[in-house]
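Page 42, continued from yesterday. The earlier attempt failed because a stray header line got pasted into the input along with the sequence. Redoing it now with the clean sequence only.
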Amino acid sequence: MLNWFKKKRVQLPNRTLDEIKIVCNILFIDDRKFPVVDILNDAGWTNTRSVKDLDSLDQKEIREAHIIFSDIQGVGKKLKFSEEGLGLAEAIKQKYPTKKLIVYSAEEQGKIETFHPAFELADNRLNKNSDPYQFQILVEKYAKESFSFNECIERIQKQIQRETGYSVEFDEVVKSLVKIQGSKNFSNTNVARIFNLQNAAAIANIVQLFITGTTKP
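This time it went through. C-alpha cells are written below.
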C-alpha cells in the first residue's frame, strides 16, 4: 500500500492524535459550569466549548460540533421541550444522526426515565459525577473514529459489509477515497458510483467528515 501511495502521490489525511485534537469540535450543553470543559481544553482538545442551553437546533455551535455532550437536566427549556433535556437530546440525534451524542446526568439511573428514546438514540451515556477521564476516553474514541486514517477505513469496510454482505479490501477503500478526494464531490450519488453501491448516504457522511473535517448541513 505504501508503494501505491508514493506512486500516486496521495494526500489523504493521516492525522496524529494532536492534529485530531485541533480539528475536532466538542460541545457541552449544560446549564451550569462543568469542569470537564476546562480539563479537555487543557488536555489539548482546544475546540471544546459549552452553552447553557440551545436557542435553536440550527445554531452555529450545534452545527459545527462533531461530538456533543448533553446534560439531561436543566436544558431544553428554551425550546420548550416537555421533557426538557431528554427531549432535546432526542431532537439533536434525530436532526444530526451522524454526530456523536453522549448524554449525562447527576441523577441515579433509577430516578430518571431510562426507557426514554433519547437513551436509545444516544451513542453513549455517563454519570455526571464520573471521573473526567471517562469523558476524555469517549472524546478520544469518537474523535479517532471520525478523523483517524485507519479507523475511518475500517468504519467504511464495516458499513459496506453491513449493507451489502460483501467485504472490501483496505487498499480498495483507499483507492476509492482518493477518487472522491480528487473529484471534491461528496454527494451520495458520486460516492455510490465510486464504491459501486446502491445507497451511499452513510458512507458519504463518513468520507466527507474524514477528508474535510465537516459534515453535510
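Notes: The two ends are 34 Å apart (CA to CA).
Reminder to self: strip header lines before submitting.
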